[in-house]
Specification:
- The chain has five helices and eleven strands; from the N terminus they run E-E-H-E-E-E-E-H-E-E-H-H-H-E-E-E.
- It is elongated, with a radius of gyration of 20 Å.
- It has about 220 residues and is an alpha+beta fold.
- The strands form two sheets. Strands 3, 4, 5, 6, 7, 8, 9, 10 and 11 form a nine-stranded antiparallel sheet that branches. A two-stranded antiparallel ribbon has the order 1-2.
- A hairpin with a 4-residue loop joins strand 5 and strand 6.
């Protein structure tokens, strides 16, 4: 355990050199919550942050379904995590039928895992999806201009792109074709589990939302 004298906080370090730290004050469990949102924001801004890629779990016919998604945005004051997908993908129909979801991410540098549970809302062809589409890059937009629906069987291994976009980015008119398939998933969180793996004993905390966040330490 290493103490930061300026902030009176602690961080737990491995013997290897770390490029990220998860600092918190053991006397105040709420510092875990604020640091979690700070790291999530860093994951949006830094492609190499481990939390940029998370695992989104849904349910289908009573069975779990999980996949990796890219964290695109957060709104801490609204308790929201946001990712994008093709509106024709299985996860959309699963969330429309059962909106409950769980988002998990793990950072091998800080050895911190987070599990965030809540309810998802899907946005297509509305103000929310339009605002996020406007912020997206041409390279990202190209991924929604497909020759077949996601999951369609293919006889050969090839990208799901029209031939004319294999080696170039779409123009504005072509990109609009991708918007028709674009969906924004907004996950509103009401349950957060935090875990840090340590050689001398793991640490864990939990936060539940009622009309405000209430957190407590728990045994791992």
């Amino acid at each position: 355990m290493v103490k930061n004298e300026e902030s009176d906080s602690y961080c737990f370090e491995d013997w290897t050199v770390m490029t990220r730290e998860f600092e918190f004050n053991p006397a105040n469990v709420n510092t875990i919550l604020s640091q979690t949102w700070r790291h999530l924001q860093a994951a949006i801004e830094t492609e190499t942050h481990a939390w940029r890629l998370g695992t989104l779990a849904t349910a289908s016919e009573g069975r779990p379904r999980v996949r990796t998604v890219v964290l695109r945005d957060i709104q801490p004051e609204r308790r929201e995590l946001i990712c994008y997908t093709d509106r024709r993908s299985d996860k959309i129909s699963e969330l429309e039928q059962t909106p409950w979801m769980e988002w998990m991410a793990y950072d091998s540098l800080t050895r911190v895992q987070i599990r965030l549970r809540g309810e998802a809302t899907v946005h297509t062809n509305d103000d929310v999806s339009a605002a996020h589409w406007e912020k997206s890059s041409p390279e990202h937009r190209r991924g929604y201009i497909t020759v077949a629906e996601p999951g369609t069987r293919s006889e050969t291994p090839e990208p799901n792109l029209p031939d004319y976009l294999f080696d170039r980015l779409p123009n504005d008119e072509e990109a609009q074709l991708g918007y028709e398939n674009f969906a924004v998933i907004v996950c509103r969180i009401d349950h957060l589990d935090w875990l840090q793996l340590r050689r001398n004993g793991h640490l864990a905390a939990q936060f539940l939302w009622t009309d405000k966040w209430e957190g407590h330490w728990k045994f791992a």
